[in-house]
Structure formats: structure tokens, C-alpha cells
């Protein structure tokens, strides 16, 4: 109820958009279990789509605990961190690790949820006028201590997260067309009016002009309104604005607008008690003009795109019925033409700064997130001294945002003929930044921000990586400038040759030596992330702050492998005691445990003799079979019964391991069943002989009690002490303790019966019951007890 009330309060605070109808949409996602953060591969990613013309988006963030299928009131409170980003998944760094060199980190929003109830908490995150399209949420728990828990030992606390999205969007926003303007007004009962206009390709500037403003049909010296403009979504408080009270005529210009996007224009009046009239709201697009390039230029022998002064055809863009009957004169650009109904059309003007040709790239898809963008007649490109070279790279919606965009530049030093030349590059999303100013080296403007690259004769190679790039068209602008005493100036008669390579990969450098690139999926969205090992960390597994040294990796591998040599004494004891089946199981366990741990190492000290899955299965099977045959051997059953149980145990354990290799009952179930068989056998002997079995105190004190203590200590270490940090030596101790307990618990060899011959019968009266002494010690089967002699006088 509290979260719904917060959402209602947010929606009620919306500005009073006039002449528009609100529509509310609701989206939700299935609850998912959150994990402690280790890398981006451990976060839960949620994908939403925000409709166009949305004025407010409210995310209701619900988190609750579960334990054993019920509410987890006893679970500890753990903060939940949620990240938001538009256009692509958020690039997060909660552990403050180092990013790989030349990597750009896009920004994102973050919210931390604290617990308000014992088993449930909610949070609200609202965005006013959000950008339309894809929005991504990433949620995780704080990093834990890395304890290795046995599955099924206790009821695990689960933290479930469910995001819900409520949006309110406008219907019926007035659409303006570039070049047209019409009479408008702001009624007294409204505070503002909202319009939108579509900006096509090859627009270098957008100019919005408010003319002939008056109140109550009386013209005034100033217009009491505020003019705002924003791309893709309705304006907010920090959008580009112009106070029309201080500027006559009121004109707002947007340089370098985004191409093929809707621009929203808000006219908001100041507090007054009268209607506000303005005779025209004029939106004029300034088009790029086609530069004059000589016919013999080699740069023109490839596919290119240009903007022209009349490149935007109104007859192609607008429906035929909506076009007013206005005469047009293409030769008189910039002239004002008047038609009926007070509708005026202003033809587009050409930009004197020009727009240089844009060279497209050829997309070659090799695999998922493995795309190469080839340049026609490339990859070596020529950059003339008098203009910029611009290239377009198109990333597919949703499909390409889960990888890494890579850009590489290499200057051919021999092509500059000894000049002190520098190649500046700007990578921008949505529109190109052509670097008109000869001395400009910035990739940012009032409305556009990009990424900067530079190469020269000293540092002739540069790279740029953008994880999770926004989809759409990226533009790379390259310009050559020569360094002088007065700064950078345009070079003369020097055409630089640059090797350009652009491509998309799943991860940065395939996560390096100490990482694994994983392809992940959330619903129908694919993305890739690195999972680091051996103490390495970071987005590309390049942060070695807590990395394991080579010596430590070698020591860890040797400990885990050589600790299995503790099975040599049990094998020797089993062979000497004629327990050949048991000895073969111990040898099998020792062999596969050694090579499994040699292959299971996280670092570079790794040796695999076969596939990892096969080694793991054999290691787990050998460990469980060692426990099984040891306990069954202690039961001292008949040979045929013992062999049948060995075979049934091997088949049952193989099936259980195939179902779940890490379950608690895979270890506990066979052990308890074998102990039950042993207890029944020992109980039967105790009842038959009317004394405790085994009968000798030496067997209990020197063998059974130490073996049981060692085995119990090994299980306790494995279940309660082992963590990721101490795994190497704790698990090695586990190997040695388990092998040592087998040596104590394995019963000694059963010797043949010692029968009394008639010649050795004693002379005398009475009867004598002769039994095997070894059976009295609990070493042989009671079924072979016989009366060896009956003495008579």
C-alpha cells in the first residue's frame, strides 16, 4: 500500500500538459533470486521498453526474503543495489576495481534499498520525461565472505527481486513541420503547450523562433514565456531554454542536433492572469551543403552520403493530405512564402560550414557479438588536409548492445613525410562532429558529447573500447592538424594514411588469461560478461590488486594434488589384508582426485588429462565409493553379499551424481545407509554372543575411536570451515584426514579357522568348546563358529 501511494503521489505531481490525453501502461517482470556481487556475470539484469511521449516512468522495486519455501523473517538484512541505464545495460563497478586501459565507462543511476519490514521492502525510482526505448536494470547483493556451503545442509536465505514499471504517456501532442509556422496560444487555464518535430538526417542546426507575442491581443515589448527544447523526450528543468522576456525576437538554436529523432518544444508561460498569443512558432532546419570535391579525387570512388540544401523533401516526409497548398520555389532558398489560413512555409537553408561526406561501413557478422565493420577500399584510409573524414558504424537495436565496441587507429608514419602531424578523432552517437574549427580538438558541444582519440608520429597507435554501447549509428570523425608554435593549424599538402579497424566483441580481450567470457541471457536479451579467477578482478579481469602469484598458484596445486598421496597407506593396508576390491577403489580415488584438482585450478598452473566434466565425475564417484566400501567392509559380511552391495552401491552412486553432484544427500545418504548395514551386522553379533562387538577394547581405543574422530573432523571442515580463500589448504587437509580415517577403520585380514586335530585332543573328562580366537576379537564372520573338539575321558 505504501509503495502504491508513493507512485500515486509521483503521478499527481506531473505538470499540467494541455490538450493531451494521458495513457497509463503497466509492465512487470518475474521475481528472480539475487546473488552476491562478484562480477557482472553474477547480477540479475532486467529489460524494459519505455514508450515514446512518456512524461513520467515510475519503477516499483519489490524485494522479499524466502527460506525453505516460507517468508525468511530470520534472514539477515542485506542491502540491494539497483542500477538504471537507458539504451544499454549499465556498466557498474561496486568493488572499485580498475578498468582495462582505453576503456570508456558510461554513466548510470544507482539506488540502494534498505529493509523496512522483516521480510519485505519496496522502493520507488521515478524518471521525469525518460528517454524512450530500452531501459535496463541490474540488481545484486553486497559481496559476501565467499563461504563454500554444502547444498542441502541448511535452508538457504534467498533474496528475491521484482521490478515493476508504470508509465504515463501523452497522446495527441501537436506535430510541427520544419519550415512551417502557425498562430498558437496558451490559454489562461493552462501553463504550457507542448509540440514535437522530427529532425531528419543531414541537419547541422535547428532554429526555433517565437514571433509576434502578445497578451489579450495587445502586443508587448516582451513575451512572458519560457521556450525549451529537448531531443527524444519532453523537456525537463535542465533542458536548453530561452527566456523570451529578455530576448526579442525569442530564438533558440540547437547546434549539431541528433539525426532521425523527435525534438520536443515546450512553451511555458510565466504566472499571469491573461492568455498569451504568439503569431508563429517557426522551426527551421539548417541542412548540410554538399562540398565541392574534385572529380579526380580518389576519396569519391566509394559509397558516400551527403546532405543537400533541398535534401529534405516535404512531399516525402509528410502525408499528402496534411501538406498545405503552398507554392514552393527551390531556387529561392530562405525566402518567406505565404499561403491561405495564415500558414507560412520557409524553405530550408544551407549551412555555410558544410558537412563532409559520410562513408558507410560494411557489417560482417561472424558470431554472437562478433561483428567486423569493414570500410570500402580499406582498412587503410587517407585523411586529406582540408577536410574531415567521417565514417558511420551502425549497431543493431538490442542485438549489439550486450558486447564491446572496439576502435583501433594506427598512423602510417612514412605517409606524413616528416611533418609534425596529429590525427584527432571524435566518436559520437547519433550525429557526427565534423571538427570545422581548424584548432578544435574537443569532442563535446552544448548538446553533444563524444569520445576523443588522437595519434601522432610519436604515439602512432590508439585504442578505444566501449562496453555495452548504445545502439544506433555511431560516427567517427577524423581530422589532421599540424602542430606549430601557435597551436594546431591546418596542414598543407600532407595526406595522412591511417589504418582503421572497428569491430564488436563479446568481452574485452576475451577476458585475458585469468578470466572467462560468458554469454548470458535474460528473457530474450543476450549479453556477455567476464568471470575472473585466481584473485584477478575488474571488467576485463585486468586488476591484479588481489591476484595470486605464480608461486602461490603452484603451491596450491601441489597441495591439492600431493595430499592425495595419503591414500597410499590405506592402499597398502588393504592389499596386505587381502581387501583387493577396496584397494582398487582407493587407487581409483587417488588417481582421479589428483588429476581433477590439477585441472580445476583457477590460474595458469593447470593440467588436464581429459575433459573437466569427466574428471569431476570420477573424482566425486571415487570419493563416495571409498566411504561406501570402507563401511561395508567394517560390517564383515559374507563375500558374496559384500560384492553385491559394492556393485549396487556403484550403480546407485553414479545415478545420484548424475542427478546432482553437489547435493548433501549424495554424501550423506550412502554413508548413512552403509552405517545402518554395519550397525545391523554388529547388533546381530552382539545378541548372538551376548557381549559387545567388537569385543576387545584395543580395537575400540586404537582403531575405531581415532578413525571416527578423524572422519568427523574432516566432514566438519568440509561443511563449516571451507571458504574460497582457504580452499587450497582446507581441502588438502580434508584429503589427508579422509585417507587417514580409512587406514584406521579398515578391519584387519580375516585369517582361516584353526581346527584342533584328534592327536592334539586333551586327555581328561568333560567337554571343551574350541572357537577361533580371531573371531573373538571381532575379526571374522560369526557364521563360521564351529565346535572343533569334544573331549572325553
Automatic annotation (TrEMBL):
<dbReference type="Pfam" id="PF12036">
    <property type="entry name" value="DUF3522"/>
</dbReference>
<keyword id="KW-1133">Transmembrane helix</keyword>
<feature type="transmembrane region" description="Helical">
    <location>
        <begin position="727"/>
        <end position="746"/>
    </location>
</feature>
<dbReference type="GO" id="GO:0005886">
    <property type="term" value="C:plasma membrane"/>
</dbReference>
<keyword id="KW-0812">Transmembrane</keyword>
<keyword id="KW-1003">Cell membrane</keyword>
<feature type="transmembrane region" description="Helical">
    <location>
        <begin position="665"/>
        <end position="688"/>
    </location>
</feature>
<dbReference type="InterPro" id="IPR021910">
    <property type="entry name" value="NGX6/PGAP6/MYMK"/>
</dbReference>
<keyword id="KW-0472">Membrane</keyword>
<feature type="domain" description="EGF-like">
    <location>
        <begin position="530"/>
        <end position="541"/>
    </location>
</feature>
<feature type="transmembrane region" description="Helical">
    <location>
        <begin position="700"/>
        <end position="721"/>
    </location>
</feature>
<comment type="similarity">
    <text>Belongs to the TMEM8 family.</text>
</comment>
<dbReference type="InterPro" id="IPR000742">
    <property type="entry name" value="EGF"/>
</dbReference>
<protein>
    <recommendedName>
        <fullName>EGF-like domain-containing protein</fullName>
    </recommendedName>
</protein>
Amino acid at each position: 500500500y505504501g509503495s502504491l501511494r508513493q507512485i500515486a503521489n509521483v503521478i499527481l505531481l506531473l505538470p499540467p500538459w494541455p490538450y493531451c490525453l494521458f495513457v497509463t501502461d503497466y509492465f512487470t517482470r518475474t521475481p528472480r533470486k539475487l546473488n552476491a556481487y562478484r562480477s557482472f556475470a553474477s547480477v540479475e539484469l532486467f529489460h524494459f521498453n519505455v514508450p515514446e511521449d512518456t512524461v513520467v516512468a515510475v519503477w516499483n522495486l519489490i524485494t522479499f526474503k524466502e527460506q525453505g519455501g516460507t517468508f525468511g523473517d530470520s534472514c539477515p538484512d542485506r542491502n540491494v543495489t539497483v542500477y538504471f541505464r537507458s539504451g544499454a545495460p549499465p556498466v557498474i563497478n561496486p568493488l572499485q576495481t580498475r578498468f582495462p586501459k582505453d576503456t570508456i565507462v558510461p554513466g548510470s543511476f544507482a539506488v540502494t534499498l534498505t529493509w523496512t519490514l522483516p521480510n519485505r521492502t519496496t522502493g520507488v525510482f521515478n524518471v521525469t520525461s525518460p528517454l524512450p526505448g530500452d531501459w535496463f536494470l541490474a540488481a545484486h547483493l553486497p559481496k559476501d565472505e565467499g563461504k563454500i556451503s554444502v547444498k542441502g545442509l541448511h535452508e538457504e536465505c534467498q533474496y528475491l527481486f521484482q521490478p515493476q514499471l508504470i508509465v504515463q504517456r501523452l497522446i495527441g501532442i501537436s506535430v510541427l513541420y520544419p519550415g512551417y509556422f502557425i498562430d498558437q496560444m496558451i490559454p489562461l487555464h493552462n501553463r504550457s503547450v507542448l509540440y514535437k518535430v522530427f529532425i531528419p538526417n543531414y541537419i547541422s542546426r535547428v532554429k526555433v523562433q517565437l514571433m509576434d507575442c502578445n497578451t489579450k491581443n495587445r502586443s508587448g515589448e516582451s513575451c512572458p514565456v519560457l521556450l525549451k527544447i529537448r531531443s527524444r523526450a519532453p523537456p525537463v528543468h535542465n533542458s536548453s531554454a530561452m527566456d523570451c522576456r529578455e530576448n526579442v525576437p525569442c530564438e533558440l538554436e540547437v547546434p549539431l542536433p541528433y539525426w532521425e529523432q523527435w525534438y520536443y518544444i515546450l512553451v511555458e508561460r510565466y504566472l499571469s492572469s491573461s492568455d498569451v498569443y504568439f503569431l508563429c512558432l517557426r522551426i527551421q532546419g539548417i541542412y548540410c551543403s554538399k562540398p565541392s570535391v574534385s572529380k579526380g579525387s580518389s576519396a569519391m570512388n566509394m559509397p558516400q552520403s551527403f546532405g543537400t540544401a533541398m535534401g529534405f523533401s516535404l512531399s516525402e516526409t509528410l502525408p499528402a493530405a496534411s501538406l498545405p497548398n503552398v507554392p514552393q520555389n527551390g531556387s529561392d532558398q530562405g525566402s518567406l512564402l505565404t499561403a491561405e489560413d495564415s500558414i507560412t512555409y520557409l524553405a530550408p537553408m544551407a549551412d555555410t560550414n558544410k558537412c563532409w561526406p559520410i562513408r558507410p561501413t560494411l557489417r560482417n557478422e561472424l558470431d554472437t557479438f562478433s561483428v567486423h565493420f569493414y570500410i570500402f577500399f580499406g582498412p587503410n584510409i587517407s585523411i586529406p588536409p582540408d577536410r574531415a573524414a567521417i565514417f558511420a558504424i551502425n549497431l543493431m537495436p538490442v542485438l549489439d548492445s550486450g558486447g564491446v565496441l572496439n576502435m583501433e587507429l594506427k598512423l602510417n608514419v612514412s605517409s606524413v613525410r616528416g611533418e609534425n602531424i596529429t590525427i584527432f578523432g571524435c566518436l559520437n552517437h547519433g550525429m557526427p562532429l565534423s571538427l570545422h574549427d581548424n584548432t578544435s580538438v574537443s569532442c563535446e558541444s552544448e548538446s553533444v558529447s563524444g569520445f576523443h582519440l588522437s595519434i601522432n608520429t610519436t604515439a602512432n597507435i590508439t585504442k578505444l573500447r566501449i562496453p555495452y554501447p548504445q545502439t544506433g549509428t555511431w560516427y567517427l570523425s577524423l581530422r589532421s592538424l599540424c602542430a606549430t608554435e601557435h597551436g594546431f593549424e591546418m596542414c598543407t599538402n600532407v595526406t595522412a594514411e591511417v589504418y582503421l579497424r572497428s569491430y564488436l566483441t563479446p568481452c574485452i580481450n576475451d577476458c585475458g588469461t585469468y578470466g572467462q567470457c560468458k554469454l548470458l541471457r535474460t528473457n530474450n536479451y543476450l549479453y556477455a560478461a567476464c568471470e575472473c579467477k585466481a584473485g584477478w578482478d575488474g571488467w576485463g579481469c585486468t586488476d591484479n590488486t588481489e591476484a595470486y602469484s605464480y608461486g602461490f598458484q603452484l603451491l596450491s596445486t601441489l597441495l591439492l594434488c600431493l595430499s592425495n598421496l595419503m591414500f597410499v597407506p590405506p592402499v597398502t593396508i588393504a592389499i596386505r589384508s587381502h581387501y583387493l576390491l577396496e584397494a582398487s577403489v582407493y587407487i581409483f580415488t587417488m588417481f582421479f582426485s589428483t588429476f581433477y584438482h590439477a585441472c580445476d585450478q583457477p590460474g595458469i598452473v593447470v593440467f588436464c588429462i581429459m575433459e573437466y566434466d569427466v574428471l569431476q565425475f570420477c573424482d566425486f564417484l571415487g570419493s563416495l565409493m571409498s566411504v561406501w566400501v570402507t563401511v561395508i567392509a567394517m560390517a564383515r559380511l559374507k563375500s558374496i553379499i559384500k560384492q553385491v552391495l559394492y556393485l549396487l552401491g556403484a550403480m546407485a552412486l553414479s545415478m545420484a551424481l548424475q542427478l546432482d553432484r553437489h547435493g548433501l544427500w549424495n554424501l550423506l545418504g550412502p554413508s548413512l545407509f552403509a552405517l545402518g548395514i554395519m550397525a545391523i551386522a554388529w547388533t546381530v553379533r552382539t545378541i548372538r554372543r551376548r557381549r559387545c562387538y567388537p569385543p576387545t577394547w584395543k580395537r575400540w581405543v586404537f582403531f575405531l575411536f581415532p578413525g571416527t574422530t578423524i572422519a568427523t573432523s574432516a566432514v566438519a571442515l568440509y561443511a563449516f570451515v571451507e571458504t574460497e580463500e582457504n580452499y587450497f589448504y582446507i581441502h588438502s587437509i580434508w584429503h589427508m584426514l579422509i585417507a587417514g580415517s580409512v587406514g584406521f577403520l579398515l578391519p584387519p585380514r580375516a585369517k582361516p579357522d584353526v581346527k584342533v586335530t584328534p592327536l592334539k585332543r586333551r586327555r581328561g573328562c568333560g567337554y571343551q568348546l574350541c572357537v577361533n580366537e580371531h573371531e573373538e576379537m571381532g575379526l571374522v564372520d560369526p557364521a563360521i563358529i564351529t565346535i572343533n573338539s569334544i573331549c572325553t575321558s
